[in-house]
Amino acid sequence: MSAHLRQVFPRPGADAPAWTSAATRGRQPSVGRRKALGGPKKSATRSDILAIAPIVVRSAEPMPGIVRAAGRGFAPAADWPASLPMVPNLVSRSALFSCVRTVVPDEDAAASRIVGVVIEKRVASTSQYKVVYRGEVLNQADGEVWQVAILTARQAGAAGLPVTFSLNEWCRILNRRENDQRTNAAIVRSLKRLMGAFLMVENRESGEDVWVNLIERVKRDPTSGRYMISINPLIVSLFTDDVTEIDLRRKARLRSSLAKWMHDYFSTHSHPIPIALDRLQELSGMAVNTALRNVRIKVREAIEELQTCEPPLFAKGTVIEDDKLHVVKATNSLFRPPKPVAVATVPPQAAAPLADDTRDASVEHDRRSTAEKAAARQRSRVAL
């Protein structure tokens, strides 16, 4: 980890700075944002940071001799941020990858069939983002495939360059059965949906606006059985700031879709404020016709999973009270805060003169006596 990242994202340990002592970590420092440009900077800190082992897709191999050129609608290759592999908070805090089941089509059917409904809708998200999605409905299984695809693509050296990989290694990372035809087919279906997934993101705080497909290209080599993917370089701008490190191995071991969504959502918070169950239902993309009592049951089951997973994400104090979820974190994740927004300084305007100050300066300095002023007024009337 570079010296800059150790300063911004300190890990507890022997190489941590002096101020990351146990006494300092026990005070539960607030996250906070950096101060406005030009002022003193405040490093983003969290307590109980979870050290996540890096995921290396060893079968990933950049395709040699391929250079991505600009023109014809293609953007040149862009370097990935020189930091830990993190996930944009706009993905973790929205219903982009929802808690729904995807209908599995019959791959052997010869007749034409509907394999998914293409939708265009405003995705429920936190107030910082405006997210519009066009494509098939995505679920948490698609989200896991996209996260491991991003990890694989980062090993190509730059976004936009193709990289090959083995499906079996993806299965090992995602805790899925290896050398299984149904498992491989499920990953391929997710890749198809992700290729058709078009995302329009507006960051209301920074003013950035990005339109991009989640995965640009997918190809399979029939001889070796290896797959090739490439990621549109425009997506790199979503990974520079306001991102969080997600423990993908821990997430893949969770059972329910809601637990997987809550894993990512609450990984982006150090001290979460209570969230209403109906709001959580909306953000997670649960079916709108789900009764509130069933939402409570699903959330309680997800809480138990997140308390018993290894390492645990939730502490024992996590409860539902008054139809609000109160979360106490057991571990936290490294994060990079949003980019500081430069506020234009407006020069102070001159104060408007008061009504009593609008008199003529000659009147202000008139030192004649009362009799002299009366005589002058009389002369002016006679002159008229």
Q: In brief, what are we looking at here?
A:
By secondary structure, the protein is of the alpha+beta class. The chain has helices at about 5-10, 20-25, 90, 140-155, 165-175, 180-195, 250, 255-265, 275-285, 290-310, 360-365, 370-384, and strands spanning about 60, 85-90, 95-100, 120-125, 130-135, 140, 165, 200-205, 210-215, 215-220, 225-230, 245, 275, 320, 325, 335.
Strand content: 5-15%
Described by the principal axes of the CA atoms, the overall outline is elongated
| Low-confidence runs | 4-9, 12-44
Give the fraction of residues assigned to helices: 25-40%
Strand order of the largest sheet: 1-7-11-10
What characterizes the major β-sheet?
Answer: 4 strands, antiparallel
SSE topology string: HHEEHEEEEHEHHEEEEEHHEHHEEEHH
Annotation, overall tally of beta strands: 16
Compute the separation of the termini in Å. Answer: 91 Å
Q: Tell me the structural class.
A: alpha+beta
In DSSP terms (H or I, runs of 4 or more residues), the helix count works out at 12
